[in-house]
Amino acid sequence: MPRVYNFSAGPAILPLDVLEIAQRELLDWHGSGVSVMEMSHRGKWFDEIAAHAEETLREVLEIPKSHKVLFLQGGATLQFAMVPMNLLRGKSQADYVCTGNWSEKAIAEAKRFCEVNIVASSKDEGYVTIPQEASWRLNSDAAYVHYTPNETIGGLEFHWIPKTGEVPLVADMSSTLLSRPLEVTHYGLIYAGAQKNIGPAGLTVVIIREDLLGFVSSTTPTLLDYKIQAKNDSRYNTPPTFAWYIAGLVFDWIKHQGGLLALAHINQKKANKLYGAIDCSGFYENPIDPACRSWMNVPFRIRDPKLDVTFLQQAEQVGLLELKGHRSVGGMRASIYNAMPEEGVDTLIAFMNDFERRYG
Ligand SMILES: *Cc1c(COP(=O)(O)O)cnc(C)c1O
Predict the structure, then answer these.
(1) Known catalytic membership, residue 233
(2) Active site (annotated) includes residue 111
């Protein structure tokens, strides 16, 4: 079976180069005689792997010294809880922007810990747009402002950074981190589950401004304290070593692609092509406000939804996999993360055009 084009939203496609390096190094990492999976997480080999991954990530994302990088577990979902547990700092409320399914999940979890102000929401519009920043009702008493720069299910993305003054900005960047350059200094905290655009499932990357560390209550579990994790180089307990190693290879790969600016260029081109194909057909549609369309996750519908099953079956037969939309919205979704080559998008568009000719 040859490699297919995998459009899964996550766990998602990884660069072929990365998989091949991992394959070559699987049994014997750099002459150590053991696999990365078999190494001590406190030994000198893994020290090197861990440090290299962080260094490369810092380099490609230009992370300033003011921010710590953590390699954690529990996915973005655990961050929904860890953020309020760590960042309330004696305050009782936090501001949340609600732009879709993942915002809703973050809000529901935060409500277990604090008063949640929904300062802006596009729920009434069906999450097809982002509320104008001028209409946001931010609170100066809020401990932080949380938003979801890319809604993976809805396919809605911020192409700008909200201004929150002195109040730290917190972002769930699970499906957009590393898709383009980012001004990390604007953020108090950024988190991302790795399985979208970073590496394998099981790893969560957190980038946190150092002055926000150290405010948990005495009942917070040790492992959920960012400060403890930072002090122990994310190795207070056994971390997901293999996922961390693969993420490091992905960071190397990004560097070899020419860095995030080069990737941003390609990502925008891939997205423009696909949205262009959808918009100029009378057969497919994407409901999202063109100013807020995601570069990473492109949902689309066939005007006649009875054709969905046939579309998905035939796509799979030609090696275009995981195009089914999220169960909450139906239709189709093509996730076109960094590792999806432009030819993958071209092949999808050619198939869509052909399908339209046959069924349109
Ligand atoms: C996938 C995803 C999540 C959930 O991630 P887990 O790692 O499964 O917890 C949360 N937020 C966003 C934006 C996502 O794309």
Answers:
(1) no
(2) no
pLDDT of 25-78, one tens digit each?
999 999 999 999 999 999 999 999 999 999 999 999 999 999 999 999 999 999
244 is catalytic: no
Q: How confident is the model at residue 2 (pLDDT cuts 50, 70, 90)?
A: confident
CA distance 53 to 46: 10
* Atom 4 (ligand 1) nearest CA: 76
Tell me the whole-structure pTM to 2 decimals: 0.98
- Residues having CB within 6 Å of any atom of ligand 1: 10, 75-77, 102, 148, 152, 172, 174-175, 193, 196
Cβ–Cβ under 8 Å, residues 308 and 299: no
Q: What is the pLDDT of residues 193-211, one digit of tens each?
A: 999 999 999 999 999 999 9
Torsion angle of C-alpha atoms 180, 185, 191, 195, degrees rounded to 10? 20
